[in-house]
Specification:
heterodimer; A: mainly alpha; elongated; B: mainly alpha; 9 helices; 86% helix; 0% strand
């Protein structure tokens, strides 16, 4: 069994040692406040009533805050830079264009479908020329191992 | 003393063991000149037949591809097909003649003609490819000309001063490519094995001409892209 009493235990919780017993019949004001025994460590300045000494800890905390702010600024700048780069160098809050400008090629696709078709046909026929010439080069260089030809 | 006896005995044993070999060597009949010639004739006919078969297989394959091609003009296709069929017929006849040869000298001449009279690998197959390529040039030139005409019909915007210059260059490049490639097919089809025998570099110059025409067409395509980009601004 554990030594700690459970909630359902019938045993009343014992008062902690050193806690003064308060009589309910006595007025509270008359009862002198009972203090816990003094600590073994005594702060000399407080006891002496002098001003509190300059503490180093708050200064260090301020340095950490500055460092954190700087870190956040760097992260924000990097994120902004990446956004700037990904948007093709135009930030939405600096320019009038909030959406990326479509490239001329993209506008051509919608503006001149007949030109796109003609261009595609020309490209395909040039690709056909390229592959045919490559095949011709292969056959030209291939003597089937017959050096006499 | 014993050592000397042992050496003599070993020598005698080796000589005795070699006796059957010398007997066999002596008994092997030396081939007569006529038998050697017959063997050489057989070997030559065998090699010649294999070379003819190899060429026939490649020519038949090329003919099959040519017949299946949809991009050659009908006239070029017919001319090229006839040339290939003529080579197939000639080589088939030569194969039969070689098989019937009884003289070594005749067989030698026939085997040499497999190469010099037909030039299957050095001329016919590359020629067929180059003719096919030349026809592709005609198609590409037509497509680029169509593109040029469409671009020329577009109204020019302000600040597009270089469009006219690019279009003029495009037209010049298309015309230059046509000047090279148009007569090329006929010139290629006219080349015969005898022409190749006289000049082995005959196909190389045509290939170089096609390269020039190819560069012209690519430049024309680049001009068209530049014009489209300018018009789209």
């Amino acid at each position: 069994m554990p030594d700690t009493p459970s909630e359902n235990s019938d045993t009343p919780a014992t008062q902690p040692e050193g806690t003064p017993q308060v009589d309910p019949s006595q007025p509270v004001a008359d009862t002198p406040p009972s203090l816990s025994p003094p600590s073994a460590t005594v702060e000399p300045f407080q006891s002496a009533g002098g001003p509190p000494p300059p503490v180093e800890a708050p200064k260090k905390r301020g340095g950490n805050v500055v460092f954190l702010v700087l870190l956040l600024l760097i992260i924000a700048a990097a994120t902004g830079g990446y956004y700037y780069w990904s948007q093709g160098g135009s930030l939405p809050f600096l320019g009038a264009k909030s959406t990326p400008t479509p490239s001329p090629q993209a506008s051509n696709t919608s503006a001149n479908p007949d030109l796109d078709t003609a261009m595609q046909a020309a490209d395909e026929s040039l690709g056909d020329v390229d592959s045919n010439l490559a095949n011709a080069d292969t056959v030209l260089g291939d003597k089937q191992g017959d050096l006499s030809e | 003393m014993n050592k000397r006896i042992l050496v003599r005995a070993a020598t005698a044993a080796v000589l005795f063991a070699a006796l059957p070999l010398s007997a066999v060597a002596v008994s092997t009949p030396t081939p007569t000149p006529s038998a050697a010639q017959a063997q050489r004739l057989t070997n030559l006919k065998s090699k010649g037949t294999a070379e003819i078969d190899r060429r026939l297989a490649n020519l038949n394959s090329a003919l099959g591809k040519l017949n299946a091609s949809t991009k050659l003009t009908a006239a070029n296709k017919a001319t090229l097909a006839k040339q290939i069929q003529d080579e197939i017929a000639g080589l088939t006849a030569l194969k039969a003649k070689l098989a019937a040869d009884t003289e070594l000298a005749t067989a030698r001449t026939d085997v040499a003609s497999i190469v010099s009279d037909y030039r299957v690998y050095a001329l016919m197959l590359p020629k067929a490819r180059l003719v096919s390529s030349a026809d592709r040039f005609a198609v590409a030139e037509d497509k680029l000309q169509t593109l040029h005409d469409k671009l020329a019909a577009k109204p020019l915007k302000d600040g597009a001063n270089d469009v006219a210059e690019k279009l003029a260059d495009m037209q010049a490049k298309i015309t230059a490519a046509k000047t090279i490639s148009d007569p090329l097919t006929a010139q290629l089809l006219a080349i015969q094995p005898t022409d190749y025998n006289a000049n082995h570099a005959t196909l190389v110059q045509y290939r170089a001409s096609l390269k020039t025409a190819q560069d012209d067409l690519k430049a024309a395509r680049d001009d068209a892209k530049s014009v489209i980009a300018t018009l789209g601004r």
